[in-house]
Design a protein that fits this description.
The chain has seven helices and no strands. The chain is flat and about 145 Å long. The protein has 235 residues and is mainly alpha-helical.
Amino acid sequence: MTPEREGRTETRERASAGTRERAGQGNRDRMPAGATATSRSRTRLDQPRAPRRRLMPEWDPEAFGALSERIARFLGTGRFIVWMTVVIIWWVVWNIVAPDELRFDEYPFIFLTLMLSLQASYAAPLILLAQNRQDDRDRVNLEQDRKQNERSIADTEYLTREVAALRMGLGEVATRDWIRSELQDLVKELEERLRDEHTDGHPGRPADGAPNGTPGDARAVFPDGSPRARDMDDR
């Protein structure tokens, strides 16, 4: 064997060995190791699952419910009754007066009875579905009203307790009128004491019955003035 053929054969063997090594490493990277190793591929948690194919047709429940409510509202109106009456009268008159080759439902109008039964069989479930949706809405509204009432009652009780606490606190505060009445009582008490001392023979009382430097009337302590002026002075 020539050196060129030996070099080519060695090159092919190296290339095939590198290819097998890369394939084995790729398989090791794809397959999980350890006790959790499985033959299935990994599921990406950051991506939604692919939709499954279903044999049954799919529809939007909200859109179907809204359509049923519109139909139920129309069935409960006078317009529907008028239109249904007109159609029935036209149906009966046409199949009685029209020529024989143009009549499509002769007496006893079996096809008309079948159509009315079909309309009633569809109208009843649609009306029930609309009523169920209305019941669900009423239940949600009642629950919200109940919670709102509970919050209102709690707020009212809190405000009542706060008002009672304020009233109790104000009852312990000394007001201006209360201080004025207390001072007047003190002045009267002082006058009575001075009068008693003068009666016992203590000198130094002027002619008007009050001691020197002491006013003989409460008006000397509280001068006359309009209540508005006294309020402004107190403020």
